[in-house]
Amino acid sequence: MTDTSIIDTIGKTPLVRVSRVLTAEAKANDARILIKLEMQNPGGSIKDRIAKAMLEDAERRGTLKPGMTVVEYTSGNTGIGIAMICAAKGYKCIIVMPQLPPFEERYIVCRMFGADVHLTAPARGMPGLKEYTEDLVSKGDDFFLVNQFYNEANPKVHYETTGPEIWEQSGENVDYFVTGVGTGGTATGVGKYLVEKNPECNVICVEPTESRVHVGAAHSPHSILGIGAGVPTHFLTELAPGKPYEEGSRGHVSEFLSATSSESIEWATKLANIEGIMVGPSSGATFKVAMDVAARPEAKGKTIVVIAASHGIRYTAHPLWKETKEEAKAALPQPPNMSKEEGLLFWDSSKA
Asked: What is each CA distance from 173 to 130, 162, 165, 194, 219, in whole angstroms?
C-alpha cells in the first residue's frame, strides 16, 4: 500500500551495527553495539514519533479541532516535528523556543513548515518557556497546547512503536538500552517495553555532566541540545514518586550516566568520520556513555542499543560544526576569486 501522507512515513527506522568506531575496550569485550537511526524520520528526529502521536491523540479526544492553533514550547526537534505535521494536516502552529544562536536551524525549518516562532529570554530557561506558553494559550479557546513534557501520548508511542521495533530488529536480544533524557518519554516508553521482554535489560539514561538533575546535582549551562533541560522530568519522576533524585536506579531505569558537552561533540564527530553516521550532540553523548558501558567486565559479549535521536546537519550553528565552518569560510571566499590566470586548483582541504 502506498503511503498517503508524509505522516505515514514516521517510524520503522533502521537499527544498524557499528564496529570501526568502537573503543579498544569495547572491541576487546566483544560488545555488540546497535544504533537506532531516528534521524531517518521525515522531520529528521525521534520527536516526529511523539509529535504525530500527541496531535492524533488530541484529535481522537476532540481537544484538537479544525481551525485551532497548535502551540508548543521546545528545545527544537519536537517543534520541527509538530510544525511538519501541522503543515500536513492544515493546522496553524506556534513554536516557542529560547533566543539562542544554536537554534538557528530550528527557527528556519519551523518557518519553512509555515509555523510562527516566538523566541523567549534565554536567561529564563525552560521555566520561562513554559510560563510564556501557558500565558499565551490562556488568552483564547482556539489554542491547543501540546505539552510534550506531560502528555501521556509521548511515552505511549515509544512503548507501542519504538520499543517493539528495537526488540524485533535486534533479534530479540537487548542487554542495555541507552538514551538521552529530554522529556523522559523514550526512556519511559521504550524502557518499559524492553524490560517487560527481558527483565535483565539495563535501561540507562544520559544527561549532560553539567546538568545531572536526575541524580540531585545542580544545573549549569551546557551545549548538548535536546537533553538536560535543567529540571527533573515528569515521566521519570513518576517512575518512583516521592523518591529523592539520587544516584542509582529509578523504576525500570537502572542508572543515570553522563557526558560532557565536549565529549558529545567528540563522539558525534567520530561517528560521522569513522562510521558515516551523522548525528547531533545528544547522540554523541549517548554513544560516549555506550562506550563506557561496553568497557565494563559484565558487558562482555552483550548487546547495547543506543538511540541516535537526530541528524547532525541540523546543528550547523552549534559548536559541533565550528571548525568545519571556519575552514569552509576560508575555502569559499565571498566574493569568489574569478581569476583565470592563477591556475586551476584553488583549495585542497587536506592542506588546510
From this structure: 39, 15, 12, 10, 35
Catalytic-residue membership of 192: no
- CB 294 within 8 Å of CB 25: yes
Model confidence pLDDT, tens digit, residues 62-88: 999 999 999 999 978 999 999 999 999
Among 206, 160, 201, 207, CA closest to 303: 201
pTM beyond 0.85: yes
What SS3 state is found at 134?
A: helix
As to burial, measured by CB atoms within 10 angstroms (0-12 exposed, 13-18 middle, 19+ buried), residue 240 is: middle
pLDDT, tens digit, for every residue of 98-145? 998 888 889 999 999 999 999 999 999 888 999 999 999 999 899 999
> Which residue in the list 75, 282, 283, 310 is annotated as catalytic?
282
Q: Which residue in the list 36, 45, 47, 288 is annotated as catalytic?
A: 47
